Amino acid sequence: MTSRLPLLALRSAAALLAAGSLLVTLADGLDARPTALAFGVLVAVGELIRPGARLGPDPTAAHPTVSHGTASHGTQGTTGSGLREAAPLGAAGALSYALLGEHAGQPTHHGVAQVVCVVAAAALLGSVPRLARGQGPVLDHLVRRILAVGFTAVCFQPLYHRGFFDGWSGPAYALLLLALLVLTVLCDAVVAAALAHSATGWPFGPLLRDELRAVPGIGSAVCATGAVMALAVAVVGLWALPVFSVPLLLTQLSLRRYAAVRATYRQTIASLARATEIAGYTPAGHARRVAALGQAVGRDLGLPEAELTVLEYAALMHDIGQLSLVDPVPAGATADLPPAEQRRIALLGGAVVRRTGAGPQVAAVVERQADPYPEQPVAARIVRVVNAYEEKVRDAGPGGPLTALEELRLGTGGAYAPEVVEALARVLGNRGGVGQRPGPGAGGRRAGLSDLGRGWVTHG
């Protein structure tokens, strides 16, 4: 319940801000309607052409608590897609309207309420087709947009209309606008991380770090374009909007194509991972379950998004080396094979992965998943532990999950990394309030973990 409080607080704040702004705008009337309409159209178009959090199904969605994310980002995203600001044109248009003090040399008179009202209405209108198709999360994206533009407008509009910036001109005024936008982007990163943490339960620190890492990229483009738009409209009027929108429009179309390419590539990896299942070497859904649970463990350990992607691909293809075997391993259970045989299969799998074009990092994780854990990269340690857990608990009875965890803990002396085993226990415990070492009177918790472990194993 505690992790849901930031989510409820942020959504409530955005709803109150939007509702209050609407009431004030209805009472006072809409000032400079052509200007409001032009910026509203710009924001709506930006929202209409933004890509979804995922284009197509998520091949790792073996468990509902792991597969959903945020649009952060983004990842959702954290958004899932890795695109922190999926609608840069809409964001730049909204922020430039919040920073608009003049129009063609004439002072404007709209305030914070009108800015928030226009942007919220335009963003909602641009999101209608996405809502109708059920394509990606929309509510949290609107929350971020409303809070960000509200923050910028509150920082700029009241001070501007009171003449606080009358002495600012030239480069100093431009730098002021950029500073306000950078501060807005940083605050938006905190909001995005808080939304993702509340929605998924993933650690806040790594989520915030991923958001901040995206700021120098598309975030800097949004800040620069938003400031330039506000300055240009102040001098030449609304004709500046289509001129300065073209670069971000092209960028957004490129992001859309990039998201589609990533989705196709992810589906290709998932199809390759199913080869061992189709050939009868591994049980159905085994690779997807390892990938889903492995990503949850990686999140718990604070891995950045780039490493989580490597972990996902490696987990999906960790058993692909078994295709080179003449006689299949019974049920594909490699965790109980002799170490030399495990390493041979891992090396065969790495050779196959290198030929797929998945990247040397993914191949290295697959190749080193059977090495002693002190010599392994973190992703390889996670794949080894989660794969062993999934194999040990697969056909176990009611006490299977607890028994599997205890076997992994007993193997931390040489086979399994202790910190990864404990992270696995935390992930299972966070999903059901269990997963730690049982103590007196732990019968109910033991039953809960049994149900939870079977959920990871049988789903998908």
Give, in spatial order, the strands making up the sheet with the most strands. 1-2
Class by alpha and beta content: mainly alpha
- How would you sum up the global shape? elongated
- List the total number of helices: 19
Count every beta strand, where a strand is a DSSP E run of 2 or more residues.
2
Reading the helices and strands in chain order gives HHHHHEEHHHHHHHHHHHHHH
The amount of helix comes to 55-70%
Largest sheet: 2 strands, antiparallel
**What's the N-to-C terminus distance?**
28 Å
Q: Identify low-pLDDT runs.
A: 53-83, 433-460
**Rg, nearest Å:** 26 Å
Mean pLDDT: 79
Strand content bin: under 5%
Please describe the topology of this protein:
Elements: H1 5-28, H2 33-48, H3 64-67, H4 76-79, H5 88-98, E1 102-103, E2 106-107, H6 112-133, H7 139-161, H8 171-200, H9 204-236, H10 240-273, H11 275-278, H12 286-300, H13 305-316, H14 339-356, H15 360-367, H16 378-393, H17 400-410, H18 418-432, H19 443-458
Antiparallel strand pairs: 1-2
Helix pairs in contact: 1-6, 1-7, 1-8, 2-5, 2-6, 2-10, 5-6, 5-7, 5-9, 6-7, 7-8, 8-9, 9-10, 12-13, 12-16, 12-18, 13-15, 13-16, 14-15, 16-17, 18-19
Structure description:
The chain is mainly alpha-helical and 460 residues long. It contains 19 helices and two strands. It has a two-stranded antiparallel sheet with strand order 1-2. The longest helix is centred in the middle third of the chain and has 34 residues, at 240-273. The chain is elongated and about 80 Å long. It starts with a helix and ends with a helix.
